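Q: What would this chain look like folded?
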Amino acid sequence: MRSVGIIGTGSFAPPKVLTNSDLEKMVDTSDEWIRTRTGIRERRIAEPEVASSDLAAESARRALDSAGLGATSIGLIIVATVTPDMSFPCTASLLQEMLGATGAAAFDLVVGCTGFVYGLAAAREMIATGAYERALVVAAETLSRITDWQDRRTCVLFGDAAGSAILAPVEEGRGILAYSLGNDGTNADALKLPAGGSRLPASAETVANRQHYLTMNGQEVFKFAVRAMVESSEEVVRRAGLTMSDIAVVIPHQANLRIIEAAAKRMDLPIERFECNIDRYGNTSAATIPLALDEAVRAGRIKSGDYILLSVFGAGLAWGSMVLRW
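A: My prediction, written as structure tokens:
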């Protein structure tokens, strides 16, 4: 089994900014209410003609440039998204054509916010066994398309973005050291998109009932989130043969600043070790981890030899944590 690591990162967020002040004009909310409860000040919104694959392609090109590779060197493409361009073909297939990654295997993962870490784990195993030499893992979301802009409880939370990573064999002792994935389907109703699938196909009734917008039980998700992040993080750090004090940078899911602060306290780590950009992007689902990771790498906050912890939770309810040595 070969050691596998990330050799290039990229991210992209659409240029249009939607601030809390803008939302004050749309729903009954306030900048102060949003900031104090979530930590969000603004988020990015894709233009109507822009799809998830467009965001994915831009972030993927930046990751390829970062790795110094061309698209034809990629043998496997995994896209994590809950907002695909269409039900099928998969967004990864569309991305393959957009990049010119001729012949690469391509598939999507639908694991909500945890999708990117699940994608990294899947690609790691396929490269470690020698099935593929290089993989592109992308998380791309246009959550603005499934957000109910009349629901003040949820519309303040979400934004659009994409992030990518190139995986390849690395020297022993580097790269992905351990990961932990899990899911609790008993709480699946806490965060979902009710209609549009085989259970509730699109109809005049489902549209009239606004069932094509995501719904969330915020209290249930909050309680689950802190516990899941802390327990899976502690487990994966142990699996890597490390202690929490060894972790140089934590890349947490950017869902709510209070969740991140609570997790930091329970992990007994200073909040300064946590990479946070939720104030500028909001919750971009699967894209939060690669977006924050790419920004940290490009800003020089992650250095060679650093131990990095990724930790995320989301719909399912699912969770995932991963430790890497950069």
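DSSP finds ten helices and 13 strands in the chain.
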